[in-house]
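Thread: "does anyone have the structure for this chain?"

Original post by V.I.:
We have the sequence but no experimental structure in hand. Need at least a predicted one for the grant figures.
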Amino acid sequence: MGKALSYAIRQKIISRKENGQTFKEISKGLGCSESGVKKIWYGYKKEGNKALITNYSNCGRKSTYPQSVHSAVEVIRDNKQGSNYVHSKLLKDYPELSIPSSRTLTRWWKKQGSNRKPGRPRASEKKAGQQMHIIPGK
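Reply from O.Q.:
Generated one for you, tokens below.
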């Protein structure tokens, strides 16, 4: 599987090709595939410097879920519960819906800026009305 090449490496590929090196020499010198070097070069020839910028928005599968799924998630996640908890509640409470994975839920919340910090919530972050049980002597 290929790896993403940094902007600096992409610039080196272009400058070396413009200086007359072959695709094979460039790929050996920079430690990347010859086909990757060719893609970058021909993209540069076609689009100019715009082709050197990485476009990670094209990576990965795009998930599409109806608004009913998003609404169900919001109903369950009333206090920034974690994705595993919300996923299990969705499976239990909404068996008729196509349920997203817990990782997908995490991505949604990260994109919205509403994901919670990892670890246990502090006492001040817990739901109102819940009291912490304090064991004397500990």
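V.I.: this helps a lot. The radius of gyration is 25 Å.
O.Q.: and Residues 18 and 60 are 33 Å apart (CA to CA).
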